[in-house]
Specification:
By secondary structure, this protein is mainly β. The protein has strands at about 5, 15-20, 25, 45-50, 55-60, 70.
Length: about 80
Amino acid sequence: MHRFRLDLAERPATGTAWDSSAARCSLGSGDGNDPVIAAPTVSRSHCEILIDDARARVSRTDSIGTSTTSTPRSYGDRST
């Protein structure tokens, strides 16, 4: 299983860290998200992160629409 750590760098959550318990998490301001981020610029169901063998995939899940960005992992051996 791939796990990962999110280090939040924007206000109001600057300096907050969150460790996943699985290869997928959902972020947003609404209850039921893995890390709940209470910020006016974060929608209730903001995005989902999925870690697979080669990439970290971020999918936007808010009401505006869904888009996906895939980038090669750059965090070395931090996943387990």
